Amino acid sequence: MQRVITYGTFDLLHYGHINLLKRAKEFGDYLIVALSTDEFNAGKGKKSYFPYEKRKQLLEALRYVDLVIPEETWEQKRSDVELYHIDHFVMGSDWKGKFDDLSDLCEVHYLPRTPEISTTKIKRDLKI
Fold it and tell me: How far is it, in rounded angstroms, from Cα 52 to Cα 83?
């Protein structure tokens, strides 16, 4: 079984998120989403519209997602890859090169983002 992991906040779930998760799942049989906690986001200066538990429920309802785990620190990625026996690490292309150090443990992939949509754009358009 090929295991895949991706990371993100996934706030205001939209079709760009769905595209990313669908393409991530195509790398394997089992997709794990490490979902940024509210506390971790606060440390990054971000505030989600929906709290962690609601964002987790939304992700768990998607057919592409097999498991949702909390992302609590930047440093946990290496230990997650080892703990969950990950074969493919997948992130959006805006992170290109940032996680290449994991390539000694698994294949690292950077996927193009859906260009016309983002949570930031939705918040800006809605003035949230």
Answer: 22
Q: What is the pLDDT of residues 39-63, one digit of tens each?
A: 999 999 989 999 999 999 999 999 9
List pLDDT tens digits, range 91-105. 999 999 999 999 999
**d(C-alpha 50, C-alpha 1), whole Å:** 33
Sheet (strand 107-111) strand order: 67-71, 30-36, 3-8, 88-92, 107-111
- Does residue 127 have an active-site annotation? no
Of the listed 44, 54, 96, 98, which one is catalytic? 44
Active site residue 96: no
CA atoms within 13 A on the CB side of 101: 6
